[in-house]
């Protein structure tokens, strides 16, 4: 079988406003194999690597998490196959994100062949000529959307950046602040996150929020918490030293400030989730805004509020900023909700997924419109996608959430 990369006449299928007729067949296939998804994805990767051994180098040594992510992304696509705008954005992010792994357009046909081979083997009761044709058409569109997004970004941006550690400051026994210097300008916005690979764990990438607004000197700051099962986070906190070189993928995330409005900000940061919140405060200050900004900063105990002094210095400098430290059993969302109502505010949440989920509900009850609540956890995890290591969202632990990769993690 030739790789499913085109529509047969040299054109490429595109998402339309009408629900694609193949959606039912694609979803039925995934429903059939869902109970044995581990077996299906294991067979998929076995086919892919046997037929294309050179592709093995793009993947981490341990494939258990990768198998979960593959099936999760397939489910996401299948469930939204009739939602063109969502898929264009979702697949575009995946395509752009795959550049850092070394994925090229020529790799996609091999992935498609292995995927169809695995589905044909394990979806036997529902697999027929019509179903196979539906998957070929769907994968054609999926792959070409990702390829196009990667090619467009590649015209203006490198696939990855080298970042030298220039400072490493322990703040608590398991939290460190790292300052990085990249080999080329890093074009991020305050509130966004980066993906990062260390020399100690090749091909294992993790997401970390950037803890400052863009600086004139081009330096980047990360807040990292070492978690018990976090290979990357523990290396960054306990092993990294000035002079070490990391690799960064492109910036991503939509938890940014809209400077076209003067709406006040309500920010909740739990643990190292305070990193992007601090960046947002700096961003407001640099734009000369005078809008009200309330920051609720939570942790289990006072020693864990490792960045409180810096936030209080900002509060003394900017009269529009109010900082509210929260510790103990009461909980960060509850404290923020009780201080409301917050009608008319733009809200930003960053922290453990449970905190974010709870926070979304509390803030809606405190008068914040749902469309004005921003966070970078996948939608279904906030109550409104992928497993996580400790639970730090994308801000500073070993998060595996955003985005869920389909080819290589």
UniProtKB/TrEMBL annotation:
Top-level taxon of origin: Bacteria
Catalysed reactions, as listed in the record: 2 nitric oxide + NADH + 2 O2 = 2 nitrate + NAD(+) + H(+); 2 nitric oxide + NADPH + 2 O2 = 2 nitrate + NADP(+) + H(+)
CDD domains with a match to the protein in the record: Mb-like_oxidoreductase (cd19753), O2ase_reductase_like (cd06187)
Sequence ranges assigned to domain FAD-binding FR-type in this UniProt record: 158-258
One Pfam family recorded for the sequence: NAD_binding_1
Signal sequence range: none
Presence of keyword rRNA processing: no
Enzyme Commission code(s) on record: 1.14.12.17
Keywords, alphabetical: 2Fe-2S, Heme, Iron, Iron-sulfur, Metal-binding, NAD, NADP, Oxygen transport, Transport
Family, per entry: Belongs to the globin family. In the C-terminal section; belongs to the flavoprotein pyridine nucleotide cytochrome reductase family.
Protein name, UniProt field: nitric oxide dioxygenase
Species of origin: Streptomyces termitum
Taxonomic path: Bacteria, Bacillati, Actinomycetota, Actinomycetes, Kitasatosporales
């Amino acid at each position: 079988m030739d790789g499913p990369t085109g529509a047969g006449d040299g054109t490429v299928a595109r998402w339309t406003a009408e629900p694609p007729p193949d959606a039912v067949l694609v979803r039925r296939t995934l429903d059939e194999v869902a109970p044995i998804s581990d077996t299906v994805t294991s067979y998929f990767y076995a086919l892919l690597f046997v037929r294309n051994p050179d592709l093995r180098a793009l993947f981490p040594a341990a494939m258990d998490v990768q198998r979960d992510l593959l099936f999760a992304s397939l489910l996401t696509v299948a469930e939204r196959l009739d939602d063109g705008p969502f898929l264009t954005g979702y697949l575009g992010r995946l395509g752009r994100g795959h550049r850092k792994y070394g994925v090229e357009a020529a790799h996609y046909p091999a992935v498609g062949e292995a995927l169809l081979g695995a589905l044909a083997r394990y979806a036997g009761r529902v697999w027929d000529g019509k179903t196979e044709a539906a998957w070929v058409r769907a994968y054609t569109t999926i792959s070409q959307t990702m390829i196009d997004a990667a090619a467009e970004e590649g015209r203006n941006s490198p696939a990855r950046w080298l970042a030298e550690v220039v400072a490493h400051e322990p703040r608590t026994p398991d939290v460190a602040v790292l300052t990085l210097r990249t080999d080329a300008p890093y074009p991020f916005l305050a509130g966004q996150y980066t993906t990062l690979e260390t020399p100690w764990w090749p091909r294992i990438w993790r997401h970390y929020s950037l803890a400052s607004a863009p600086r004139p000197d081009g330096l980047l700051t990360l807040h990292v918490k070492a978690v018990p099962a976090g290979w990357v986070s523990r290396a960054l906190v306990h092993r990294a030293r000035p002079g070490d070189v990391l690799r960064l993928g492109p910036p991503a995330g939509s938890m940014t400030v809209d400077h076209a409005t003067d709406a006040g900000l309500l920010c909740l940061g739990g643990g190292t989730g305070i990193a992007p919140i601090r960046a947002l405060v700096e961003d407001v200050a640099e734009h000369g805004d005078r809008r009200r900004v309330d920051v609720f900063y939570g942790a289990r105990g006072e020693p864990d509020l490792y960045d409180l002094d810096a936030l209080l210095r900002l509060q003394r400098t900017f009269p529009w900023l109010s900082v509210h430290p929260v510790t103990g059993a009461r909980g960060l969302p509850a404290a923020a909700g009780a201080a409301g109502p917050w009608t008319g505010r733009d809200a930003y949440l960053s922290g453990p997924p449970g905190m974010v989920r709870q926070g979304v509900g509390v803030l809606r009850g405190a008068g914040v419109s749902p469309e004005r609540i921003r966070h970078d956890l996948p939608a279904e995890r906030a109550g409104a996608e992928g497993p996580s290591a400790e639970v730090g969202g994308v801000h500073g632990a070993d998060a595996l959430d955003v985005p869920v990769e389909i080819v290589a993690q």
